[in-house]
Design a protein that fits this description.
By secondary structure, the protein is of the alpha/beta class. The protein has 15 helices and nine strands. It is about 45% helix and about 10% strand. Bound molecules: iron/sulfur cluster. The site of iron/sulfur cluster (SF4) has 12 residues, from loops. The site of iron/sulfur cluster has 12 residues, from loops.
């Protein structure tokens, strides 16, 4: 096949049916708006069922964002502010512990902890949050700090990534979320997050985490200034690292919410773009076990439909989510377990409660 050959949907279908890996050119092809999104979705559903059968996962979790003060002030971010802003907050140890207690009392198995990079807080503050929560609630899995925060800790501590992660693991870190990846291409990052770590650093933090046995997630923030080619490049780079380490658990496509950001002139993605992005991600990331339809970002309706377009996980009940709601997400603040299970059953799948590491949770319903 020559380099100029344009792949057809039939060729792609045959490859997917045979379990062969799609090339970047084939990924770009299925991103084209003129290619039937539902046909792409059916191919993704084939992969999804091959990987996870009819299971659709969820967990019972809560979010904790200890501060919204951030030195980076990314144009994409509606959540962060400067320390002198009237919206600025920094949670006290007492407030943080109260959130941990609330999570445990609500039956959460996971606390997802991310926030701003505060100008006056040292590594010890962030490390102390993990230690304090883990000592008080050892049964609560702490999925904490994005690669952006870890890279800042490296700067603050003047030590390598490995040293920082080892301290956090000793303190009780259970796994890492996948935020901060955005789109790896520097031409995009300079517009949406110019002061944030670059793509290579993000990948390197995750590579080191995987080498230490930490499982992590990966995200892609789409629907702003990026092109389909830049989305595919992002997916291919994640796929390459997964080939190398096998340490990623789930991929989470995040639809950009422009409201309240410095990119507020950009239109929100359509439901069909969201579904196509989920489907193409499932097709390209053949070495990822899970693709999430994160209902906070996609909205409950689109996330439910996305279960038939390649996604196999709705994320969790998510008490206290601030970051996407500050940017105008109109999804509810939280879902109950009954609501999540009903969404999954209505979509024709089998609800499976998991813990953070995708082990079936044992709970009497
Ligand atoms: S996206 Fe993250 S790093 Fe950027 S300003 Fe917001 S909180 Fe800070």
């Amino acid at each position: 096949m020559s380099d100029t050959h344009q792949p057809t949907l039939d060729e792609i279908r045959r490859k997917v049916e045979a379990g062969s890996r799609l090339s970047a050119a084939e990924g770009e092809m299925v991103f084209r708006p003129e290619v039937d999104v539902h046909a792409v979705g059916r191919l993704a559903d084939l992969v999804r069922r091959r990987t996870n059968s009819d299971a659709a996962f969820y967990n019972v979790n809560a979010h904790l964002n200890p501060t919204n003060v951030c030195i980076y002030r990314c144009p994409l971010c509606a959540y962060s502010c400067n320390a002198d802003d009237e919206r600025a907050y920094v949670m006290s140890d007492k407030e943080i512990l109260a959130r941990g207690r609330e999570a445990v009392e609500h039956g959460c198995t996971e606390l997802h902890v991310v926030g701003g990079v505060h100008p006056d807080k040292g590594f010890d503050w962030y490390l102390g949050i993990v230690r304090m929560l883990h000592e008080a609630y050892p049964g609560l899995h702490l999925k904490a700090w994005t690669a952006v925060e870890i890279a800042r800790f490296v700067e603050l501590a003047g030590r390598p990534v490995r040293w920082v992660l080892e301290r956090l693991i000793e303190a009780g870190l259970g796994s890492m979320p996948g935020g901060g990846a955005e789109i790896f291409d520097p031409a995009v990052r300079v517009q949406i997050c110019p002061r944030k770590i670059d793509g290579a650093t993000w990948l390197d933090v995750h590579r080191t985490a995987h080498a230490l046995g930490l499982r992590t997630n990966a995200t892609m923030l789409y629907g702003h200034v990026e092109s389909p080619r830049q989305r595919i490049d992002h997916l291919v780079r994640l796929r390459e690292l997964q080939d190398e380490t096998g340490g990623f658990q789930a991929f989470v496509p995040l639809a950009f919410h422009p409201e309240g950001t410095r990119l507020a002139h950009i239109e929100r993605t359509s439901a069909l773009d969201d579904l196509r992005t989920v489907a193409v991600s499932r097709l390209m990331l053949d070495n990822f076990d899970h693709v999430k339809a994160y209902w906070i970002s996609l909205g409950v309706g689109t996330a439910q439909v996305a279960l038939a377009y390649g996604a196999d996980d709705l994320d969790g009940t998510v008490c206290h989510e601030e970051i996407h709601h500050q940017a105008g997400a109109d999804s509810p603040e939280a879902l109950t377990v009954d609501e999540i299970r009903r969404l999954i059953i209505e979509a024709g799948f089998r609800p499976v409660e998991r813990d953070t590491l995708y082990r079936a949770a044992e709970r009497q319903l």
